[in-house]
């Protein structure tokens, strides 16, 4: 049965952990979906495969192009697509136009946007009222890299309180779920207990309702991983060995036989 946004909320109530990963193409999306991953995020960390240093250059057209490929590989998981930098912050109309294109053109069920400042809350509320499910994202928000860097957020009492209030406000605005990135585990716990919508943590401790990781980190393909990522296999080495074996066999005229 395809996963819905309501299902995620039920899973929170049942304390059934939600498993999420990122996908940027058909091949990986198909593997993740068949493996039973609950939520597939077409994140703007897609910057990695496009060779960008940060997520800032990723365009809406690039997200749409990759999300369409992911959609073709996803049958059951809930598919969420990131709104890239400056495709939603300018105005509510801009956000509606970008989010609307994502839902209409890719078949994704929801969008994700970073930040919980007051103007954003109005945008989330209006999108939710228009029937567009929105996933929030607070803590470390990589689109603000030039303000925040990539360091852990919410370390002081004041910063921790600010993130908690943003999360509460996003729920009140109508977000169906919220990503908590790179914050202390105690803050992850506090937010998770306070909200009725599911929290999906990435570097936010073990108490969140679900966890998400960037698939290229999990597979050992990223050039550098954040400190909270766990590498479950080293595909970079496997691929290097395979292509070197192929190259040797071609050079030695062993392939094709
Ligand atoms: O873009 C992304 O992949 C994300 C995850 C890190 C949550 O936002």
What is the element layout, followed by pairings?
Blueprint: H1 5-13, E1 18-22, H2 26-34, E2 39-42, H3 47-50, H4 60-73, E3 78-82, H5 92-106, E4 110-112, H6 118-129, E5 134-139, H7 145-148, H8 157-173, E6 177-181, H9 185-194, E7 199-202, E8 210-213, H10 215-218, H11 235-251
Helix pairs in contact: 2-4, 4-5, 5-6, 6-8, 8-9
Plain-language structure description:
This protein has 257 residues and is of the alpha/beta class. It has a single domain (5-251), classed as Phosphoenolpyruvate-binding domains (TIM Barrel, Alpha-Beta Barrel). It has helices at 5-13, 26-34, 47-50, 60-73, 92-106, 118-129, 145-148, 157-173, 185-194, 215-218, 235-251, and strands at residues 18-22, 39-42, 78-82, 110-112, 134-139, 177-181, 199-202, 210-213. Strands 1-2-3-4-5-6-7-8 form an eight-stranded parallel beta barrel, surrounded by seven helices. It binds 3-methyl-2-oxobutanoic acid. 3-methyl-2-oxobutanoic acid binds at residues 22, 41, 43-45, 82, 179, 202, 212, 214.
Properties at a glance:
TIM Barrel; globular; eight-stranded parallel barrel; 14% strand; 45% helix
The overall number of domains is 1
The strand order across the widest sheet is: 1-2-3-4-5-6-7-8
Radius of gyration: 19 Å
Largest sheet: 8 strands, parallel, barrel
CATH architecture, please? Alpha-Beta Barrel
By CATH reckoning, the class would read: Alpha Beta
**Approximately what portion of the residues adopt beta-strand conformation?**
5-15%
Number of contiguous helices? 11
Helix content: 40-55%
Mean pLDDT: 97
**The CATH topology, please?**
TIM Barrel
| CATH homologous group name | Phosphoenolpyruvate-binding domains
Please provide the ordered H/E string of secondary-structure elements. Answer: HEHEHHEHEHEHHEHEEHH
β-strand number: 8
Ligand roster: 3-methyl-2-oxobutanoic acid
């Amino acid at each position: 049965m395809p996963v819905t946004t309501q299902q995620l909320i039920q899973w929170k109530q049942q304390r059934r952990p939600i498993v999420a990963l990122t996908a940027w193409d058909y091949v990986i999306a198909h593997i993740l979906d068949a493996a039973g991953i609950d939520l597939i995020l077409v994140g703007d960390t897609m910057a990695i495969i496009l060779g960008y240093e940060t997520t800032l250059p990723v365009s809406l057209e690039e997200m749409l192009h990759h999300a369409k490929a992911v959609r073709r590989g996803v049958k059951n998981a809930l598919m969420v697509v990131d709104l890239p930098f400056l495709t939603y912050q300018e105005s509510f109309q801009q956000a509606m136009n970008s989010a609307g294109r994502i839902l209409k053109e890719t078949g994704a069920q929801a969008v994700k946007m970073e930040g919980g400042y007051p103007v954003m809350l109005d945008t989330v509320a209006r999108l939710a009222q228009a029937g567009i499910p929105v996933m929030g994202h607070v803590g470390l928000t990589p689109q603000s890299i030039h303000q925040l860097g990539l360091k852990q957020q919410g370390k002081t009492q004041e910063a921790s309180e600010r993130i908690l209030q943003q999360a509460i406000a996003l729920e009140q605005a109508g977000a169906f779920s919220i990503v908590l990135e790179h914050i202390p585990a105690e803050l992850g716990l506090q937010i998770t207990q306070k909200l009725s919508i599911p929290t999906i943590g990435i570097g936010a401790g073990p108490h969140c309702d679900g966890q998400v990781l960037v698939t290229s980190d999990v597979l050992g393909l990223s050039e550098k991983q954040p400190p909270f990522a766990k590498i479950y296999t080293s595909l970079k080495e496997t691929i290097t060995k395979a292509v070197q074996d192929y190259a040797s066999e071609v050079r030695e005229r062993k392939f094709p036989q």
